[in-house]
Specification:
Chain B: Residues 1-91 are annotated as: Disordered. The complex is a heterodimer of chains A (91) and B (343). Chain A has helices spanning 4-20, 23-27, 42-48, 56-70, 72-89. Chain A has 91 residues and is mainly α. Chain A has one domain (4-37, 52-89). Chain B has 343 residues and is mainly alpha-helical. Chain B has a domain at 184-341. Chain B contains 12 helices and 2 strands, in the order ααααααββαααααα. A two-stranded antiparallel sheet of chain B has the order 1-2. In chain B, β1 (163-165) and β2 (171-173) form a beta hairpin. In chain B, α8 (211-238) runs antiparallel to α12, α10 (257-267) runs parallel beside α12 and α11 (274-300) packs antiparallel against α12. Chain B is extended. Classes of the chains: A mainly alpha (91), B mainly alpha (343).
Chain lengths: 91, 343
């Protein structure tokens, strides 16, 4: 159905989309920032994380920030490779 | 009528069979393809002995061509001298004396050990070899009972995996040979290969076989397994389930759906009507879903007796989330199985 190349391209584009999200302009606005605000929402965080429970939202935020931190450099390399490939052999 | 007694036909022309080549009592009569020239079998050839004294110290793995060349020169001569040979014991028969043989063995052993160490250092973390071996430790009765379990899961009573405590206090599960509830990798692997073969067989029956169909089928089945594994893994991450040593178990559980898929495809050869085929398909899907729900329960809702990690909290907040995740996962199997059945 979907070829391997298609799946590769789609995943690369999705990871690019995750990496492009701006930390302070966008994520902080909608409250998805990974840096815990010290005062705002202190109590609700505390209740939810009293016994080490982390919600799905927190996990998602952690996942996004981890992907963004780790995949910066490999994404540069991968994007360059794909661009070169498309230029030379894309047709 | 005159009786002529039957006689064995006598050949009228003189037939002389050539004498069979005389077997030399020592392998020196044949060309030696040994790796190093040997010690002195008592030939009256000063030449090979000079060569042999030069070859042995430097490099025992010389090519056999040099040796064969100067052994091919005197081909008739060794035949005359067989009776004077005494066959050398064991390695001597190959033209390799004991010291060289031992050196060669040591070299080989150290090379293999170095290779293993290299692999272990670089790739040992990815594939836990002992765990893989434990998953292939199956017996015949286990295989039959497990297939029965996958196809008819309602008949099974207790789904808990048996544990055994080692001396160090670690708690680990028993191998599949001892525990019917333990997942193995043998059945999923065999089912995967059988699925690829059946897809080839299916296309052959419909006269559209091409060897690339096998590769395509294998790739798509592998893709399904990867997607399933990723969805379980990401779901476990979101629900804070520890998946440290359980990668192979997840792969094993992903592979059990092939058993149902194979039986569905086989049932399609029996010329059932369309409705009955879909009934059978849904039956196998529900059987697989039930099997997964029961089996993954131990994965996702950890038994308090076993858990040693601090995040093994069976609080209500987690339980409902995990149960929802498990249910969604079991329901996704129908998508995978539907994709696989369209072979």
């Amino acid at each position: 159905m979907f070829g391997f190349g298609t799946i590769l391209y789609v995943s690369l584009l999705l990871v690019n989309a995750m990496a492009v999200l701006s930390e302070d302009r966008f994520l902080a606005r909608i409250g998805w920032s990974s840096a815990r605000p010290p005062n705002a929402g202190f109590q609700t965080y505390d209740q939810a994380q009293g016994q080490g429970e982390v919600g799905i939202k927190t996990k998602l935020i952690e996942l996004i920030s981890a992907v963004r931190t780790l995949m910066r450099i490999p994404l540069i390399i991968l994007n360059s490779l794909v661009i070169l490939y498309e230029l030379v052999l894309g047709g | 009528m005159a009786h002529v007694p039957l006689r064995h036909p006598v050949p009228t022309h003189p037939v002389s069979l050539p004498d069979p080549p005389s077997t030399p009592s020592s392998p020196d009569g044949y060309q030696r393809f040994s790796s190093s020239p040997g010690p002195a079998p008592p030939q009256q050839h000063p030449q090979p002995q000079m060569y042999s004294s030069q070859h042995v110290p430097a490099y025992p793995m010389t090519s056999p061509f040099q040796h064969n060349q100067h052994n091919a020169h005197p081909p008739p001569q060794p035949h005359h001298q067989q009776q004077s040979f005494v066959p050398q014991p064991s390695f001597g028969a190959w033209g390799v004396n004991d010291a060289t043989a031992q050196f060669g063995m040591q070299l080989g052993t150290s090379a293999v050990a170095a290779g293993q160490e290299y692999v272990q250092k670089n790739f040992g973390g990815f594939i836990p070899l002992t765990s893989v071996k434990a998953h292939f430790n199956v017996s015949n009765s286990y295989v039959i009972n497990k297939i029965k379990l996958v196809l008819f899961p309602w008949m099974h009573k207790s789904w808990k995996r048996r544990v055994l405590r080692t001396e160090q206090g670690h708690v680990e599960y028993q191998s599949p040979r001892d525990d019917i509830n333990s997942p193995d990798l043998y059945i999923p692997l065999m089912a995967f290969v059988t699925y690829v073969l059946i897809s080839g067989f299916h296309s052959g029956i419909h006269a559209r076989f091409h060897p690339r169909i096998l590769g395509e089928s294998a790739s798509s089945a592998l893709g399904v397994i990867i997607v399933d594994f990723l969805s379980i893994y990401v779901g476990c991450y979101f629900c804070s389930v520890q998946t440290s040593g359980q990668v192979l178990d997840i792969l094993a559980y992903s592979g059990y759906k092939f058993v149902g898929v194979i039986f569905t495809i086989l049932s399609s050869y029996l010329y059932f009507s369309g409705a009955l085929y879909y009934v059978i398909f849904f039956y196998f899907f529900f059987a697989n879903a039930l099997f997964l729900l029961r089996s993954l329960r131990s994965l996702v809702l950890p038994d308090p007796a076993l858990s040693s990690s601090p995040t093994a909290n069976a609080s209500a907040y987690y339980r409902s989330r995990r149960i929802t995740f498990l249910f969604i996962e079991a329901m996704c199997q129908i998508v995978y199985m539907f994709f696989l059945v369209r072979v």
